[in-house]
């Protein structure tokens, strides 16, 4: 619906038809059309604008195109719908949309009331002698006006309102007579349109149909054919029940019986079959004249679809809240166990030191370190599930990478599990994080071993896939080239309910203590963050297949895999700038790096780091956290430093990042990334390796 076009769109016609069929020329659009379209009519007796009768919409369109100050007054409350000229002449620029006519004209109601009642009885009036003086004009000065009252009828022929026209007569008599003639012509034109049922039938945007007592279609209007796609010849004489959805037929038969018996019935919502086979929803009202039933229906398919979408969104939000609650509970449980192990070990270690007893000191340290390592793995898996883990994607050949990690997969499967390969001859290149790719495959193999009770077989397949449509739905992967990786076992399988929850964090079907419920969520997050899609197919006692779909990459694959970092026990020199806002961690890193022979300058924020970088001489390596306070991230720090010194070596450290690190930034020479938490020894070795490179 256009801004001021309240009836229907169609092909251009000549003369007066343009006022109804076409949105008016931009130069003649009444600015009130926008106000009317946006006004909340649901608060008035007229109800929401989309539910207005066709006769009311036609009247409003005609009123908006009128050169006169006029208003449509409609309904039992005499609700006012006016144009801009009416507002300017009577109201000094104020809107009274939806207000009662008698309230708007309360100061003149005693004079105007009788003419209003005559109009509601179906009689037109033009009151010019004597003209009436309006106390509030456009400039605040009183003006003389003549008034027109023209009844407006609805589809049933009953007077539902009237058109109120104001003509200023302050000007000379000649001009007054000229405007009067035009006003009368306009009112006559409106009357002819409203009196001619055929015009309403042809121009209404609502679907209209006339039904015989035998429930066959006698006639249908153009809107009916446009909405449902049926040709005129095909619809003529068609049994109406053949068009109605089977689930709605009983309700329709009851409603038709009520209409025929002239019982007052509410509107009904039914589905009518489109010519191509699908159904559209209509809100129908009907009237029986003794032989034929006339039904008028508004297409509400879009409204119902929107309501369905909102319901589905609410359901998804509810499910998300449930998952978040499960995630929080599972995280608290796991972290409490790990923190208890760390705290208990440190407590006993402190107690033994105070007692001067050195036995079992190494045991307590190892217990604490083991709990820390498990906490590190837990946080890394949670980041993978949330798709916020920092990734370092590289082009790789899936087949070659699978062959390189085959020993690790066999170890994860165990001695009594067999591994079979069905690999595409020439798989396309994919671009993924190598470490996370390997972790995902190992997790899937561990799950397969558990499903097979450590005795069965696993088949890994790779295949090139070309999607010609979105997968699995319109919100899924776009059409294009992908590489599919399928991991299939012959284990006990999963129920449909378990499959639906398989990717929820901390959900597991394994016995207590045999799994954390983070393996599949980690795979889910990694694949999604890599631009792919993962799903599970399984039935009880029929095995399980987990499928991973990665987008094809056009990048070239490096000739050789990067060599492992050499571990050098001690560094001779090296000036480092350490940037981290976590005081305790920064102090520990500084102390360990100093013990390894580095000269370390530490700062807590980006501004201090840039100041030291500019004024404290050259640094061999900058170690910076990515998430820094003050709105200036580690990425921006690195870019600013390399503007001053393009060859500056930088080691990024992070535990979480809400934005992926740009690939081109990590691919620059002298750049590396480490994920918190990490052993301090590993940090020192990485720094040594970067300085030696």
Automatic annotation (TrEMBL):
Histidine kinase domain: which residues? Answer: 330-554
Q: Where is the PAC domain?
A: 128-181
Q: Where are the transmembrane segments?
A: none
Where the record annotates domain PAS, the positions are 221-263
Lineage: superkingdom: Bacteria
Which InterPro entries does this one have? CheY-like_superfamily (IPR011006), HATPase_C_sf (IPR036890), HATPase_dom (IPR003594), His_kinase_dom (IPR005467), HisK_dim/P_dom (IPR003661), HisK_dim/P_sf (IPR036097), PAS (IPR000014), PAS-assoc_C (IPR000700)
Transmembrane helix as UniProt keyword? no
Location of 4-aspartylphosphate modifications: 625
Q: Which SMART domains match?
A: HATPase_c (SM00387), HisKA (SM00388), PAS (SM00091), REC (SM00448)
Q: What Pfam families does this protein map onto?
A: HATPase_c (PF02518), HisKA (PF00512), PAS_3 (PF08447), PAS_4 (PF08448), Response_reg (PF00072)
- Which reactions appear under catalytic activity for this entry? ATP + protein L-histidine = ADP + protein N-phospho-L-histidine
Q: Which PROSITE patterns match?
A: HIS_KIN, PAC, PAS, RESPONSE_REGULATORY
Enzyme Commission designation: 2.7.13.3
The protein here is known as histidine kinase
